[in-house]
Task: inverse folding
């Protein structure tokens, strides 16, 4: 949720009964991050020195790069953030250990929960058996934003990981394409302890996305959020091998289909910037974008998902014949 989830969105999701995450934004420095953290504390009414009931999400390759992200993560752990979410790195195990060592350095005996987002069963076995993580986020192929090209559907991945990791095992959360309570109920029925919601929160009042990006989401059709390597070939960020992404940008897809090379596309993007043309701007989002018809408070989204989930679970009980 980089570019999407700041301190306000994280706090409002938690206030509504979910568990919000604040993304470490690599384009800004630690002072901006600390201000976002302070905003979450203020919104949640959590005094300094107490555990802040949100998580901090960070991408592995950003931690590996000398851009100050590691320092921001360390600061958040020392400040008492409840959880850390790691994903997309060449050596995520190293950063799991980094969190554990920061806990020891803090010296209060409290353990920061570590969640790791993964896309294959083999990755999850390593996370559970070697890294000893607290939470595994099983991210299926339906996911918006970045994900593993090798990932199966979320439902298939949930079934696979439970067979590969018998209890006791880390908490398993399902991620990928969650757009309604029906999705949540189905993943709970498949054995997930909870779900991850991304795109629906990108289209909220508290999302850091600007009005242009939110408008793109509002206008999205069912087939507009496309998974491809094109987005990263254009942007050149150092994502690990085997990663692609789902986003919305019809103009870039048209350029690619017309046979334009990446260098030609980048030149057009430079020209666009001079003219104020944003048609080639990538908006990271998943399938649920098509279901967003208005920009609402995050609280409304959480409450609607809860109602729908309860209704679906109750409906499921009517399918069971009792004596």
Result:
């Amino acid at each position: 949720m980089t570019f999407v989830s700041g301190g306000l969105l994280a706090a409002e999701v938690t206030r509504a009964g979910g568990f919000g995450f604040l993304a470490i934004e690599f384009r800004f420095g630690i002072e901006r991050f600390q201000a976002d953290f302070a905003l979450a504390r203020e919104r949640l009414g959590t005094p300094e020195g107490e555990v802040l009931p949100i998580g901090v999400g960070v991408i592995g390759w950003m931690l590996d790069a000398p851009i100050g992200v590691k320092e921001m993560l360390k600061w958040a752990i020392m400040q008492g953030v409840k959880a850390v979410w790691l994903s997309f790195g060449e050596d995520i195990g190293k950063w799991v250990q980094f969190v554990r060592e920061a806990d020891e350095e803090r010296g209060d005996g409290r353990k920061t929960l570590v969640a790791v987002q993964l896309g294959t069963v083999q990755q999850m076995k390593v996370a559970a058996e070697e890294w000893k993580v607290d939470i595994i986020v099983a991210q299926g192929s339906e996911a918006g934003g970045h994900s593993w090209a090798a990932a199966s559907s979320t439902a298939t991945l949930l079934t696979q990981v439970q067979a590969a990791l018998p209890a006791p095992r880390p908490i398993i959360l399902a991620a990928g394409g969650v757009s309604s309570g029906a999705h949540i109920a189905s993943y709970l029925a498949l054995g997930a302890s909870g779900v991850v919601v991304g795109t629906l929160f990108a289209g909220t009042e508290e999302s850091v996305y600007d009005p242009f990006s939110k408008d793109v989401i509002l206008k999205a059709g069912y087939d507009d959020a496309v998974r491809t390597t094109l987005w990263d070939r254009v942007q050149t960020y150092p994502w690990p091998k085997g990663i692609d992404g789902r986003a919305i940008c019809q103009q870039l897809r048209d350029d690619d289909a017309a046979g334009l090379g990446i260098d030609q596309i980048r030149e057009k993007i430079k020209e666009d910037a001079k003219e104020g043309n944003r048609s080639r701007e990538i908006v990271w989002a998943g399938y649920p974008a098509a279901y967003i018809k208005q920009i609402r408070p995050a609280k409304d989204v959480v409450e609607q998902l809860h109602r729908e989930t309860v209704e679906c679970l109750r409906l499921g009980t009517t399918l069971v014949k009792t004596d």
